[in-house]
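step: validate -> pass
step: tokenize input -> pass
step: predict -> running
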Amino acid sequence: MTTQVPIDDPAALTRYIESRYHDRHRQQLPELTRQADLVETVHSGERKTPQGLAVLLSRLAGAMEIHMKKEELILFPMIRRGGGQGIAQPIAAMRADHADHDGEIAAIRKLTDDLSLPENACRTWVSLYDGLGQFIADLQEHIRLENEELFPRFETLH
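step: predict -> pass
step: emit ->
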């Protein structure tokens, strides 16, 4: 059974984003960081080892936690109250963060050779790249829902 995305109800959409994407990112990133660190350590010096990936994911986790908290504590409550004066600035800040996240996705793709595994990759490496693929897809859909479905409704109100 697939969950219907409530794009016609901004308040419901904010709750959906929090439960579907914020919670999921908070689960994904620590495990992906742990796996990246393990792969980098065990396969140090091998040609396709994604050196620096664990640090990138750790930084991304911190940046995303700040971003998600700003949404949960400032922007989403404003949206649930119907928007109003002053909403343009937090939306602009979230869009800027989203652009940064797109850059971080590009950096992940570059470090991992677009998630292409070496021959005979270990199970952890396979799991890492599978997880990164899911994380990237989730993050891109999260960003799309906010940038294309949620934010435009409120940017025209001020």
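step: describe -> Residues 10-155 form one domain.
step: cleanup -> pass
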